[in-house]
Design brief:
Largest sheet: 4 strands, mixed
Oligomer: single chain
Helix content: 10-25%
Number of strands: 7
Strand order of the largest sheet: 4-1-3-6
Structural class: alpha+beta
Distance between the termini: 91 Å
Radius of gyration: 26 Å
Mean pLDDT: 81
Number of helices: 2
Shape: elongated
Order of helices and strands: HHEEEEEEE
Low-confidence stretches: none
């Protein structure tokens, strides 16, 4: 007979906290399960800004980067994010050489409620050289 009484005492102790925790868990579950979560991969063009005039970008430039996006807000549908762009600020590059840039949420303009899960490639290794008169600024010209 002691076991049922001990069990009742354990269940009744801090009953308010237990019910409150259960309510918070239910609310969080409703908020996250309310809408469908969409995950999709989309290509994005890479744009560069603030390259010093005496430097040229020689190699390491991809045509596009594949972005894996997640949306729980309903803003992301196939075809609604066609013109995704990755922007890289090159103002910190002052000397020739190889520099690595990581693609993060800060480099991509995304609709509200959409998060960047990953980018492929996640890092761009860009090679910079001095611009010399008479040389083409583009390696393939």
């Amino acid at each position: 007979m002691r076991a049922p009484r001990t069990l009742n005492r354990l269940l009744a102790r801090n009953l308010g906290w237990k019910l409150g925790s259960l309510a918070v868990a239910v609310v969080l579950w409703i908020l996250t399960a309310a809408g469908p979560v969409v995950t999709m991969g989309e290509p994005a063009e890479v744009y560069f800004a603030n390259l010093l005039p005496d430097l040229v970008l020689r190699s390491g430039v991809p045509e596009s980067v594949q972005l894996e996006l997640r949306d729980a807000s309903g803003n992301l549908r196939p075809g609604t994010v066609r013109d995704l762009k990755v922007f890289l600020d090159l103002s910190g590059v002052t000397e020739p050489g190889t520099r690595s840039f990581t693609i993060t949420r800060n480099n991509v303009a995304l609709p509200e409620g959409v998060t960047l899960l990953s980018a492929s490639p996640a890092h761009l290794d860009l090679v910079f050289d001095r611009f010399e008169k008479g040389n083409s600024p583009h390696p393939h010209e």
